Amino acid sequence: MKRKICSRCRRPATVCYCHTIKSVTNAWPVQILQHPAESNHAIGTARIAQLSLSRCRLQVGEHFDRTSVASGLAEELEPILVYPDESATPVEELDPQQPRMLLFLDASWRKSRRMLHESSYLRSLPKISLQPRRASHYRIRKVPGQYALSTLEAIVSVLSILEGKDNQYQPLLDSMDWMIEKQIELMGREVFQRNYKDKG
Fold first, then answer.
1. In the predicted structure, residue 57 carries a pLDDT above the cut 80
2. Candidate from 3-17, 86-100, 118-132 with smallest mean pLDDT
3. CA dihedral over 155, 161, 162, 168, signed as positive or negative
4. Mean pLDDT, the chain, as a whole number?
5. Domain presence at residue 63
6. Residue 1 included in any domain
7. Distance (Å, rounded) from C-alpha 92 to C-alpha 45?
């Protein structure tokens, strides 16, 4: 029997999180450049941002140039890439009164590095870095460390810092937490404890 897929969140009905989504208005627009390998992940978080934020666009692909990125810009704002790099400026140093288009790469660390390596345009963009203020809640994927954030958590953290509104973006994290709890429930607590608890 074919599983019913939600047309909005594109997840099976058993893990559809649409009822948790709340619309949030963001002053700094967001564009997510998603690697194709991430687009069908049951625990992907970028789609939550796309459904929740008033100014958010998601593009799927492996190679992005000036034209493809510009096609997703609904506003005439200079893009800046959120990516850890030696030349990156800490997000706290940006002028919060001068909004720019925030670009995020939604991919594994290995694939995001490849996306960057293969795009001279992305490499040429100014970059900002983020120092996480709290451990990730993304408990069902192995990550380099407890402060390695999911794409959604990075988006929420950057917007919260730039806009000075810590609580405004909490609904996005609530949706992610619901999704994760549902996945843990489906896999079973024992499987979760054995494979993910206190790892990463």
1. yes
2. 3-17
3. positive
4. 86
5. yes
6. no
7. 24
Other Cβ atoms less than 10 A from the Cβ of 23: the count is 9
Residue 184: give its domain's CATH number: 3.40.1280
In a domain, 185, yes or no: yes
In three state form, how does the secondary structure of 9-35 look?
CCCEHHHCCHHHCCCECCCCCEEEEEC
Looking up tokens 């390695």, which residue turns up? 148
Domain limits for position 81: 24-131+143-195
pLDDT value at position 200? 43
User: Could you please report the per-residue DSSP string of 43-103?
Assistant: T--HHHHHHHBSSEEEEE-S---HHHHHTT-SS---EEEE---TTPEEGGGS-TTS--EEE
Whose CA is closest to 127, among 156, 87, 76?
A: 87
Q: Nearest-CA neighbor of 125 among 116, 115, 133, 135?
A: 116
Write the pLDDT tens digit of every residue in 1-27.
Answer: 567 888 888 888 888 999 999 999 999
The domain total for the chain is: 1
pLDDT (0 to 100) of residue 123: 94
Region of residue 198 (phi > 0: left; psi between -120 and 50: alpha; otherwise: beta): left
